Amino acid sequence: MSSARIASILKSKLANSPLAQGIVGAFGLRLVYTGLSFVISILLARVLGTLGFGTYTYAVVWAYFLSVPATLGFDNFVVREIAVYQSQSNWPLMRGLLSWASKAVFVFSVTIALFAILVAWILDKGAYSEPFIGICLAMVLMPALSLRNVRRGAMRGLQNITKGLLPELLIDPLILITLTGTAYLIAPQHLSALWVIVFYGIGTVTTLFILNRFLIRSLPTAVKLAPTYSKGKAWLTGAFPFLLIESIPIINAQADVLMLGALKGVEAVGLYVPISRGAQLITFILMAVSSSLAPTIAKTYADKRLMDLQQTVTKSVRVVAGVAFLFAAALIVCGNAYLGLFGPGFVAGQRALYLLCVSTFIATSIGLARGILNMTGHERFTATLGWITTTLNIVLNLILIPRWGVEGAALATSISLLVGAFSSLIAVRQKLGIDATLMGLPAKTIKPK
Question: Of 209, 220, 208, 213, nearest to 94 (Cα)?
Answer without folding.
Answer: 220
